[in-house]
Amino acid sequence: MTLPDAQPRTRLHTRKFVYQCYLRDDGLWDIDGELSDVKDYPYMLHSGEIPPHEPVHNMHIRLTVDDSLTIKEIVARTAHAPFPDCMQTAGPMQAMVGVTIGPGWRKEIEQRIGGVKGCTHLRDLLSNAATAAYQSVSAHALHAHLNDRNSAMTQGERPHFLDKCMVWALDGPVVKEYEPHFYVSPSSEQGK
């Protein structure tokens, strides 16, 4: 399914986020991310004109995390940016080493490298890397668990994704069918 046909229009800007996730031979995980901003017209900045289809921004990060999603290493590179000083913005990213991706992730980013302590675009890239990390590290663990025919369903600790999306609502049919021990009937919710 795609979006419906649009009204006549002219594309002016494309922003892309791409994340690739790798399980390393040493058991750690690499989350590689790239952000690019490209204009379809000559774009004037304080520092000069960027030709059409040339990146205004092109930035890369690599987060190395363990199974608990704690950042062990971080590398950031800026290939294209409006100002030469933007090339210096990778250093502050080191303040994120030791942080665990999870609840409060965006708040940690803001406290450690927010505002003038870091780069807006690298923060965007880092912020969205959390979802890629969950989709690789956590999803891989769940996949292995569900493929183990001798393993019970997730009866212990509540999975992080429950009650974070309308499909995984605790009182919904998906939880009732696939995670029934966490299911809460709508009538018991009203009694709270």
UniProtKB/TrEMBL annotation:
<dbReference type="InterPro" id="IPR021312">
    <property type="entry name" value="DUF2889"/>
</dbReference>
<dbReference type="Pfam" id="PF11136">
    <property type="entry name" value="DUF2889"/>
</dbReference>
<protein>
    <submittedName>
        <fullName>DUF2889 domain-containing protein</fullName>
    </submittedName>
</protein>
